[in-house]
Amino acid sequence: MSSVIKNGRVYWLVQKQESEALLFAVDEQVVSDVERRLVDLVLSTKKEPEPKPARMPTEEERKAGLVRDWLHQQQERGFTQAEMPDQLVSLLSLYSTKVPILLYGDYTTSRRVHYAELKKLLDSFFDAEITLIPLTEKEWLILGSEKILTMDGSDDRISDEESLEDKLAAMGYGLHEMLENEWVGEAHLAVHYPMTPAKSLYSVVLQLRETIMLGRTYHVGSSMHLPWELQLEKLVHLVPEAEKASFLERVLKRLDVAFDPETMTTLEQFFQLDCNVSETAKKLYIHRNTLLYRLDKFKQETGLDVRTFNNAVLVKIAMLLYKVTKRK
C-alpha cells in the first residue's frame, strides 16, 4: 500500500469501506524517504480482522429446531390441538411424561442468548438432562422428567404430603431465583402439570403462553405464573370490554376514591390471606385497628363490606377489571 505525494503533502490510505476512505497525511518535509517507505510497509502488512465463523448448531439444537418449526406450523394453521408426528417424537425421545416450563426472557434485543449457554445453565440447575426447545428469540420451552420435582432430595414421606401444585410451584420459584441471579434481564416463568409431549405438547404450549399473558396482565409485579392461581383471571379476561366497564360502574361508582394505592395494597393482602384480619395486619405491619379502619372506610365509600363473602367476591373481580381498564 504505497503513499502518494501531492501538493507538498504525503497521503496514505489507512482504511477503505465501501464508498468511504480513511487517509493519513503529513507535510512532505517532516518525513524522510526511509520513514515514508517504512509506513508503506506497515500499512501493506496490515490485515483486516477476519470475521468470526458462524456458530454451527449442535445436533440436539437442530432437532429442537425441527420441533419448534412444527409448533409454528400448527399455530399458523390456527389449530388448538395437534399430535406430534412419530418421527419428531422419537428425535427427542418425547414419549415419556414431562414437566413443561415456559421461559420468557424479557432481555433487550441487543442481548442474544445462545442455546448451548442456556442449556448448560439449566442442566446444572436441575442436575439432570432436560429438553430445551427455542420457540422464539425470547421464548424457550423446557421439558424435564418428573424427577425434577424432587431434585432437592427431601424426605419422600414429607414430599408425599405436598400437593402436586406445591411441588411444581417450589420447583418454578427455585428456577426463577436462579435465573434472576445468573441471567441477564427479567425472566417470566409459567409451569404446567406433567403431560405426555407426544399427545399434548402443542396445546400445552398454548396454555403456557396464555398463563404468562394472564399473569403479566393482571399481576404486573409477578414473574412466576401458575395456571391454577389464575382461574378467575382467565374467566374475567373473556368478558367483553364494554361489559367490564359497565360492571365497574355498577359496583364501584368512584374508582379513583375506591382504589387508591393504599386501598389496593390493603385489599390485595387481605384477599391473599383469605380475608384474615389479624394475618393481614401483620403482613402490612400495621395495627389490627388500623386495618379495620381502612376496611370500614372502604365500606362507607362503596357500600361493600369485604369481610362478607359476596361483597369480597365482587370487589376481587372489580380489582382485576380495574387493573386492566386503567391501563387503556
Automatic annotation (TrEMBL):
Coiled coil: none annotated. InterPro entries: CdaR-like_regulators, Homeodomain-like_sf, PucR_C-HTH_dom, PucR_C-HTH_sf. It holds the Pfam family HTH_30. Residues 264-320 form the PucR C-terminal helix-turn-helix domain. It comes from the Bacteria. SUPFAM superfamilies: Homeodomain-like. This is YxkF.
